[in-house]
Amino acid sequence: MIPDLGKYAVTVLSAYGVSLLLLAVICGASIWRARRVKAALRVVEERIKNGR
């Protein structure tokens, strides 16, 4: 069921590839930032818990 893209095959498949790559980068950056924020929050909560 793969459509015949003809002379546009390289362009269309490249666009799909770049889009998937960008989605992976955005997901990775989001996960990386979430872990950093979670670690920073843990430090602040410990400081509050210890009365500093």
Automatic annotation (TrEMBL):
- As given in the record, the signal peptide range reads none
Q: How does it sit in the membrane?
A: Single-pass membrane protein
Report keywords, A-Z: Cell inner membrane, Cell membrane, Cytochrome c-type biogenesis, Membrane, Transmembrane, Transmembrane helix, Transport
Q: Quick one: where is this thing mainly located?
A: membrane
- Location of this chain's protein in the cell: Cell inner membrane
InterPro entries from the xrefs?
Haem_export_protD_CcmD
Q: Which domain of life is it from?
A: Bacteria
Q: Which GO terms describe its cellular component?
A: plasma membrane
Query: Which GO biological-process labels does this protein carry?
Result: cytochrome complex assembly; heme transport
List membrane-spanning regions.
Answer: 12-32
Pfam families (UniProt xref):
CcmD
The entry assigns this protein to a family as follows: Belongs to the CcmD/CycX/HelD family.
Q: What does this protein do?
A: Required for the export of heme to the periplasm for the biogenesis of c-type cytochromes.
Give the protein's recorded name: Heme exporter protein D
Name its species. Answer: Pseudooceanicola algae
